[in-house]
Amino acid sequence: MSAGKILVVDDDPQIRRVMRTALIGHKYEVIESRNGGDALASVSGEMPDLVLLDMNMPGIGGLETCQLLRNGSDVPVIILSVRNTEKDKVAALDAGADDYITKPFGMEELLARIRAALRRAPSSPEGGPHALTTPDFQIDFDLRRISVRGKDTRLTPKEFDLLRYLVSQAGKPVPHRELLQAVWGPDYGDEPEYLRVFVNQLRKKIELNPSKPKYILTEPWVGYRFVAAGEDGEPRP
Amino acid sequence: MNTDFNRRAFRLIAAPAIVALIVVFYFRFVKVNNTTVSLTLLLAILAISTGWGLLEATIASLAAVLGFNYYFLPPVGTLTVQDPQNWVALGAFLITAVTASQLSARARRRTLEAVERRREIEGLYALSQSLLLSGSARSASQDLVSRVVKILGVSTAAFYTKSSDETFRWGPEDPQISDERLRVELEETLLDAQGSFAIIPVRLGGQALGNLGLAGPLPSLAVLNAVAYLVAIGIERARALEEASHTEAARQSEVLKSALLDALAHDFKTPLTSIKAAATSLLGGDRSAEDRELMTIINEETDRLNRLVAEVLEMVRIEAGKLHLEKRPHHVAEIVDSALADLQPAMRERPVEVRLQSDLPEAEVDFDFVQQVLKQLLDNALKYTPPGSPVIISARAGEGRIVISVADRGSGIDEQEQARIFDKFFRAREHRFRVPGTGMGLAIAKGIVEAHGGKIWVTSEPGQGSVFSFSLPVYHREHGQMVS
Q1: Cβ partners under 8 Å of residue B114, min gap 6
Q2: ipTM beyond cut 0.85
């Protein structure tokens, strides 16, 4: 049985070749696309479990492909790029990617990230919340549904997992490292920019005024804190 | 000339002839009273003075007085000047002649002036149009003088432009508008008393652009000043256009440079990605110790090549001025902590001391780049000093700067090498073949620090150790700005 179907999108044939060989060796099913346009067709036609997306491609680039793909799909996306500045990582995550890996990378690292991206926290972790109702939104964690001010809202799996972890620790400040490891996996912890991007996206989706959040508060130098009742005013200085 | 003279002579004869005709007509054919005769003569004089001018009208007036006196005033057939009627008639005729001829001359002059003005305005308009159509400032200056000659009807035009210290000329050489004269900066238009030449300062917004010299039949001063103003606008416009296209060309070349650097990075790193992915994939499987060793070499050398490519590209970026800094306020402690964390486990083997001034302000820096500088200095301390020797990181503020230092207790650097240690590809003699490196690390560190407006330097005493220091700008909090 396959460990999952992975779509490899890269314009370089050698990279596709090595990826296919290595991933098949690890029991993944592999499909390939040479460009963004093909990738979009493959995602809707073949329903992969994960997409490895090259950032720098002729035609529709990686970022644009990721944005287009996010219009109709929650499939986990890992961006592969030769650039390693924080700005590039943030741009990729903002475009809807779940993770980002810099070329060249070791195969072990890529496999670890693939496992992390495919891993779904069980829908109701033990002792975790099943549902939550606040003045602004209702969440059903079992059905993975959220409705914000009466409107059904789509969260990506990572956004959903992040929110659920924060809710399960409601009232307590959750450190960056703990949050990263709970949502992305044990190999993570030094990527505070991931949290910045995903928390911003969550705030945009659930907060009435994302620049003055009431539910997901920033704890400077520490991490984030969820307040179920909604806190009035600004986050603590 | 000849026809003008003939026409004048004809008029001088025709004027008294008309008077004679009227006198003969009334004397011989139609008998009327004297009042009618005098009124008719008056009308004729009026007509002559309006149409032909004062001289013709005066001759006609004299002829009319003589004829009127001789043929109509009693005693008829004699010239009697005692009669006061004579004086009244003569006065009436002369006053009419003078007044009417002056009025009509004034009207004619006005018409001529209006025609002249129209011609001048048409000339200025043509000049402004042609100036707006010319291309570069240089070709505009060249066009300009030929157009001024053609449109204003002067014989020679010369334009001295201050910016390039050149004179552009059109028409025959004229010593009155020599280069020396044109070079003198003028407050106002220099107009020759005879009207044979003029030098007009060309300025825009109080700034002198040069002088325009004209020789030959000159237009009015107002037109000269208008021409100078038009020339200033035309030249300035051409220069602005030229500058804009230069800026655009420079910008495009910068964009191209950036794109080229990105393409280079991509093209170098893509094959490295395949090699590393393949090598590490093989390493992950079940391998013999020998295979494992060989694959580890491939993997490590791929990393080395990758670092080299990254360093070369970074050096090129710094030298091309393409380093893109994202400056934000950061605490030095944060940068130090993250650099130390990145250099584990090698750093763990060393006694590391961090001495930061207690009330250190935030630095306004690009976190990643400054961290890279600090890591480079720490890495050097690790590489070039004996194992187990201490490393001290310190930071202090002063004069709007924060100075971060990394001190070691190594063998130190001699004075000659201190001066060159931040040069590209420089490697200290002692370490050249002993410690691996490209000689680009400190040059890159210098480029990054300088891009922040800071300085990097080293103090060292052979045998005692070295202190590498760099300065960074302090962050000045704007009023009311929140730092998240």
Answers
A1: none
A2: no
